[in-house]
Amino acid sequence: MRGPHNIWRLIRTGATFERTGAMKLALEAMEAPPALRFAARVLGWPFKWLGYRGDPALPPVTRALTALGPAYIKFGQVLSTRPDVVGHDLADQLRVLQDKLPPFPTEVARRTVAAELGAGVDVLFSEFSDSVAAASIAQVHRARRSDTGVEVAVKILRPGVERAFRRDIDAFHFAAGLIEFLSPSSRRLRPGDVVSHFESVVTGELDLRLEAASASEFAANTKEDAGFQVPEPHWGLSSRRVMTLGWAEGIALGDVAALRAAGHDCTALSERVLQLFLSHALRDGYFHADMHQGNLFVRGDGEIVAIDFGIMGRIDRRARQWLAEILYGLTTGNYKRVAEIHFEAQYVPSYHSVDEFATALRAVGEPMRGKPVSELSVGQMLDGLFAITRDFDMQTQPHLLLLQKTMVMVEGIATQLDPDINMWDVSAPYVGSWIRDELGPEAALADRLRTDTQTLLRIPDLVRRIEDMFPAKGGAPEPPPLPDIEIMPIVSGERRGDGPGWPHYVLAGALGGAAVWAAGFYGLIG
Q1: Is-catalytic flag, 290?
Q2: Is 125 helix (H, G, I), strand (E, B) or coil?
Q3: Does residue 440 register a pLDDT over 50?
């Protein structure tokens, strides 16, 4: 229920940040304006005693997020990929949210496996370790199948995680409604739709059968990608709360020191991560939407292995074409075309000027071109983009939120591996090649042939449906004739029934005409 009882949850959120000492650190790391810092501290301090205590062994911000629950942990995972936004110290602290949270007891995991798979752990597996990684929603155990001897990873949902997420999502919905009510100008950002989209994503992540299906589809799409691997699911050992995948091992992509010590080229890895993401998003329209460092490993041979497929993103072909043209336009400085695409996609209302929007995009894009990410001011860039959305009435596009979030994550990973990486230089060749393949004359001709062929193939079905509506003679009984309807009860000058005959109509007409003549003669009508 999204009622006022959620006010308590929001108050407790602020109180928890204040009690754990996270409020001051978070506001400073985010470079919040002094007025906002003062207001947050003043409003949070009186309720400090209501906040959750959390684990004192954890850093303050990490302590607050873990105490508040899985939805807040997910938010912290995103921030852990952006040291340019929250600073390197806080990003390092938040990284433990990816796969280093406190695990639940192994005995609980064993009972869950038995209940879900219909057989005990000792029957299904010859080896079954304690938790090797624990995140906000589930934890992973290393195991070996009894029947085949293959080493696998067994992922098991945390007890009660479904209820915890429903509670947090409920509070987020209430907060979104409150924001829209108190600030009508925020409605163009559609905070309610944003929360609903996040809710649908999380709901899918809580059913491990869907994650297994996502892993299978992702593996099929990327099987030809050089230097990239996706573990295959073991369907016979998977259910709603338990999923079994092939075991993946390597150095976490976030451990830059270990990668360099192992002889890996971090610059090449950063470029490959960016190009892999663009390939999956643009080529397939299906991409890993939770690409933080804890979900990517580098094997000894340099191959990148992805895990955790609970959040996947999907965009249709037309949206992919728009995205590619926008990226290519920004990298090449063709802001007029970028503006036109925004109008074609109806991201910007048609009553605005394309040229004026292109000029506004230039003001944001030009300072970023030709510079490494480390030299860009993300704050200034966001301020410019927010000004554009405000001035040109752009609305938030919930269906692109996962793509936007993943782009932020990928940028964070690439920057961590190589602070001097130039995102534009790395992405422009791939995006340009994709545009030539997908939007060039050959592609347009192929699209036309495909569309026309599909139209021709639908003609037989259309003919059959027409014949069903208008069957041939003898194919169906003739419909009964409609009864005759008489407009005047006069046939061949004969009177029917008891109604008046034609002499009566003549007499009535004469009397009416005489009455009109008399009225005119005596001046009663003009």
Answers
A1: yes
A2: strand
A3: yes
DSSP string, 187-220: GGG-HHHHHHHHHHHHHHHT-HHHHHHHHHHHHH
Q: Residue 70's closest CA among 238, 246, 198?
A: 198
| Backbone angles phi and psi of 169, in degrees to 5 | -60, -40
- Contacts of residues 478-486 at CB distance under 8 Å and 24 or more positions apart, as own/partner, are none
Separation CA 395–CA 407 (nearest Å): 19
Q: Tell me which DSSP letter residue 47 carries.
A: G
pTM of the model: 0.66
CA distance 238 to 245: 9
Sign of CA dihedral 371, 373, 376, 379: positive
Cβ neighbors of 234 (< 8 A, separation 6 or more) are: 145, 152, 244, 245, 246
Local structure of 157: helix, strand or coil: strand
Identity of the amino acid at 298 = V
Q: Which of 97, 101, 169 is nearest to 131 (CA)?
A: 101
Residue pair 134/157 in contact (Cβ under 8 Å)? The answer is: no
Q: How far is CA 193 from the centre of its chain?
A: 11
**pLDDT single digits (tens) 309-326:** 988 888 887 777 777 777
Q: Alpha carbon 395 to chain centroid distance? A: 15
Token pair 């090797």: residue: 132
What is the phi/psi pair of residue 59, to 5°?
Answer: -60, 155
CA distances from 244 to 108, 130, 219, 517 (A): 17, 15, 15, 102
- Chain position carrying tokens 């304006």: 33
* pLDDT one-digit tens code per residue, 74-112: 777 766 655 555 666 777 777 777 666 788 999 999 999
Question: Using N-to-C axis directions, what is the helix angle for 22-29 and 6-19, rounded to 10°?
Answer: 90
Active-site residue (options: 84, 168, 170, 290):
290
Secondary structure element (H or E) that encloses residue 136, with its range: none
